[in-house]
Amino acid sequence: DTAVSQTPKYLVTQMGNDKSIKCEQNLGHDTMYWYKQDSKKFLKIMFSYNNKELIINETVPNRFSPKSPDKAHLNLHINSLELGDSAVYFCASSQVGLGTEAFFGQGTRLTVV
Amino acid sequence: GQQVMQIPQYQHVQEGEDFTTYCNSSTTLSNIQWYKQRPGGHPVFLIQLVKSGEVKKQKRLTFQFGEAKKNSSLHITATQTTDVGTYFCAGTGAGSYQLTFGKGTKLSVIP
Description:
The complex is a heterodimer of chains A (about 110) and B (about 110).
Chain A: E1 4-7, E2 10-13, E3 19-25, E4 31-37, E5 43-50, E6 53-57, E7 64-70, E8 73-78, E9 87-94, E10 103-104, E11 108-112
Parallel strand pairs in A: 2-11
Antiparallel strand pairs in A: 1-3, 3-8, 4-5, 4-9, 5-6, 7-8, 9-10, 9-11
Chain B: E1 4-7, E2 10-14, E3 19-25, E4 29-37, E5 44-49, E6 55-58, E7 61-65, E8 71-76, E9 85-93, E10 99-101, E11 105-110
Parallel strand pairs in B: 2-11
Antiparallel strand pairs in B: 1-3, 3-8, 4-5, 4-9, 6-7, 7-8, 9-10, 9-11
């Protein structure tokens, strides 16, 4: 049973399209994250939600909009995709207060053509 | 904002040699974590250090947290090909929810 699952695993799309990536965790964690990993493998935090509330919003273009319908889900919607959005996007979750070990999903490799 | 620097960015070693990666934070950390990402995989938690000066071992891996809680290191003794991957440190500042990752050290092991 996968702890943090995200779909799809691969996403190839054209510039200008709108796409969504879904993430679900079954660990009962309070906090969920989206990270972007570029071609140089740098892991950069984009958003963090705690109990469905946005607590971290790094300098990410407003074309990226996270949505947390409940604390087990954190989806990422991207409008007007650009070539520079191509990367691997990782969802993660942790339980703040009991140690902040993060569990990562398998990643979504987004390619914008 | 909090920054976590990690060096080196790349390290190539002969199988059997030792390997060390270093992590430095611009601010005092409440804890530091280490993750390993295999090629094509996702980051997987290895360990967390909380106390000043703490040292923890996992088989051939030794993790240290500095006295000032601003730096950390991961040392691998006698590397094996299974050690290949990118090692990330990640720190949490006091009172923060944010886990800030270093840029990672990509380890290649030559058989």
